[in-house]
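User: For a reading group we're discussing how well predicted structures match intuition. Take Pyrroline-5-carboxylate reductase. Before you show the prediction, I'll give you the sequence so everyone sees exactly what went in.
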Amino acid sequence: MNVLVIGGGNMGMTYAAAIATSNFLTDGSLMIFDKSEEKLNELRSKGLFDVHDQLATCLPKADVVLIAVKPVHAPGLMAEMKPMVSDEQLFVSIMAGVTIKTIRKGLGVGKVVRAMPNLPALVGLGMTSFTASEQVSRLELAAIERLLDTTGRSIMLPSESKIDASTGISGSGPAYIFYFMQALMDAATKMGFLEADARLLVSQTFAGAVELFNSSALSPEDWMAKVASKGGTTRAALDSMDGNNVNALIQEAAYAAFRRAEELGKQSEGKEVSHA
Ligand SMILES: NC(=O)c1ccc[n+]([C@@H]2O[C@H](COP(=O)([O-])OP(=O)(O)OC[C@H]3O[C@@H](n4cnc5c(N)ncnc54)[C@H](OP(=O)(O)O)[C@@H]3O)[C@@H](O)[C@H]2O)c1
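Assistant: Thanks. Here is the predicted 3D structure of Pyrroline-5-carboxylate reductase, as structure tokens, for the group to look at:
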């Protein structure tokens, strides 16, 4: 299988490096295409991929094409690709808010997978949700799942509406965790800790809690009950959060991202993509 990654930025490079260093491609090659000379030099210096600066030299050879440019560049890129693509090729897009309908129309092809990764893909701990057009076979889906799993874990969803929903949970989710971390670090510095100490207190607490959570089938509520004893310090904090409706506010934030993902998808179908 020949795989082509289009766009050698943060995500494209991450996927290309993950695919190149995994055992995904036992038979075939990994090509990467970008337009900027600076990016091309960086990609060449890695020595991991077959780097191209022209679509004509790589696109027709690809069985799977992973599109990793910013959504704002999608219309121009797809117009350039269209004369060189065929219906046998499979297109995987990680472009936020660009729908399968938009890609099928833009490229004039049938087989499209839309995937929503998240930032921890950069360190191999990504969470990617994906869905596909009906022309993609089960065998192809299994291969795409393995490809996406090179950057972490993945989940196949039944519809694009669920992709928008997962954007509100795992896609944008890392930022919610950073928000919580920042708030705790702010509290720690107010309590008199040096910034470096605040960073360590918070990051190790997050890492430890997640490791603990993953070590059993207990729910977050079960773990909270284990940590918080009646009349104790943790109970005081959890009661304060409950009293301020923090749970409902976090849910509302996730819904805000979900609604925004839906809006962006609609804009992409109306060719009004303007977000980065
Ligand atoms: N970062 C995330 O956490 C995240 C999460 C989910 C989804 N995504 C999606 O991943 C995609 C890539 O994001 P990113 O952060 O990796 O962006 P990025 O760093 O800007 O990378 C995009 C790359 O594509 C290049 N490019 C632009 N137009 C091109 C064209 N016509 N042909 C070939 N290459 C082209 C860009 O070159 P120039 O710099 O010269 O324009 C840049 O090197 C976006 O669609 C984003 O929505 C990202």
